[in-house]
User: What shape does this take?
Amino acid sequence: MRVLLINPRFQLPIDTRTTPHLGLAYLAAVSERRGDEVRVFDMDVEDVKLTEFVHDYRPDLVGITSNTPQVKQGWFAAREIKSVLDVPIVQGGPHVSALPEESASRPEIDIVARGEGEDTWIHLCEVVEKAKAANPKFQSSDLLDPTNKLLDDVLGITYQSPDGKIRHTHERPAIADLDSLPFPAYHYFKMERYTSLQPAMDAIGKGKSFSMMTSRGCPYRCTFCSQSVMAEKWRARSPESVVKEWAHLVNDLGAEEIGILDDSANIQRARLHDLCTRLIDAKLNHVPWILINGIRANLADEDLLRHMKQAGLLRLAFGVETGDEDILESIDKRVTHDQIRAAFKNAKKVGLETVGFFIIGLPGDTEETMEKTIQFACELDPLVANFSMMTPYPGTKVWEQVHRNGGRMLVKDWQDYVFFEGKARFEMGETTAAVQEKKWKEAYRRFYLRPHRVMMTLMRKSTWQHFPRTLSMALKIVMPKKTKDNVKALAEETQVAC
Ligand code: B12
Ligand code: SF4
Assistant: This one.
């Protein structure tokens, strides 16, 4: 079987990063293990036209990934494919997992895969392969006809049958043994076209930065986080498997930076200690690694932080979110400001670079509470402070709150569901757009323009080492519109509506 996996185009206006899609790398790996011929088409880095590619490759099954800002580009890609070939198209990823009916009811999408995708994808490959072998005149529509009973046993999917009915199969249980998965298949990606994970800060040549997941899921349920659309159960790979992949990335693929993408890497401290010991023993600790997502501040004691530093950790992030005690409680973060203070203090003490994630405009936020967030950011003083505009994603509790409690969404287009721009995405009560936008601007200005921060930026090697990139990033923050408008214009041109 020939399978094609697509990452639809969507580069953020202020983002200079382009990183290979780990979810697709896993799907490619399981397909390869099944014996399929695989191609990955990442529209952010490809220079050939999708239609030409599909015309030449003639896949038997296509998979498209989509987060919320990408979903329309996903539909557009599907329509382009259908214009040259009748092939079943499956759409997966966080957005369609939250709103499966929306995509399943589009004519260009045949099947929506909900949640974790490897087993569902493999099952669909098997179904299509068998159906094609049994019927040389197979058409995609045959799959969706309930009388053929082809999809009945495929767990975790949603599709629209020819009678117009949306059909959901039962949930697929989360993969219990993550060690059973093959390593992500990076060899299907044009690695030389990707940047490092944090290009404005790190001196990594193209193709030398890799991502890894050592655990999946998160037992917490913060109200703003889209993690809630995925499996709740936290599952970890064994330290043996992680170190084996780590060694493969470093020794075989030449990794010069590893980004750990776990949602909550430090749920089990003993496991991380074990991993660190093994990295040191295997002499893999010379390659810097970064905890890209916030780890839990309540589970980050000094011992663990020191051990991770010894094992090569360069930088880590904590999700602080707000400086207001009541709002912190209302978002179910289950951490206290004192725990956060201690985590930053200890991380700095052992020599780690720190990143703080803050949110402006959480439900209930007022000018006064947002002010507390800015002050708390200045007090913690991480190397990088990231202020996001609260963006209610479908499937989250904040999304429900806004829709049920008389809030008003200010964005109508999925492409605008991004949170690094200073535009308010919703308003509710005292959390007005005007105050969110004012405080967001103030947050960046007040955090980064303090005299010691200006000095620090000027003295950092990376500021000068990557000056063109740093400048381009700064310009994109000041003038973010251009890239965004290009992407929007493309979607409007092709009239993909949401
Ligand atoms: C790394 C990361 C990034 C990276 C790189 C993205 C990339 N190229 O992969 C960067 C930093 C660029 C990024 C940016 C953004 N991100 Co991000 N990101 C992540 C993160 C932490 C890990 C992604 C990952 O690798 N997961 C591991 C793999 C294995 O999972 P996966 O990709 O979801 O794929 C699995 C399933 O979804 C499914 N699946 C996915 N696609 C398909 C396709 C088919 C056919 C099938 C069958 C199955 C399937 O199967 C896969 C294997 O199990 C996730 C959180 C998370 N835990 O996933 C957030 C997450 C995906 N990001 C999120 C968001 C909001 C964003 C931004 C919009 C933020 C912003 N700045 O405004 C941008 C959008 C950027 C863009 N250009 O589209 C949200 C998405 C919510 C939503 N409703 O879409 C998440 C879930 C975070 C969260 N908890 O809220 N992100
Ligand atoms: S913000 Fe972090 S801790 Fe909270 S639910 Fe999301 S991944 Fe889990």
About this structure: Residues 482-498 have pLDDT under 50 and may be disordered. The pocket of iron/sulfur cluster (ligand 2) is lined by residues 218, 220-222, 225, 227, 263-264, 294, 319 (CB under 6 Å). The radius of gyration is 23 Å.
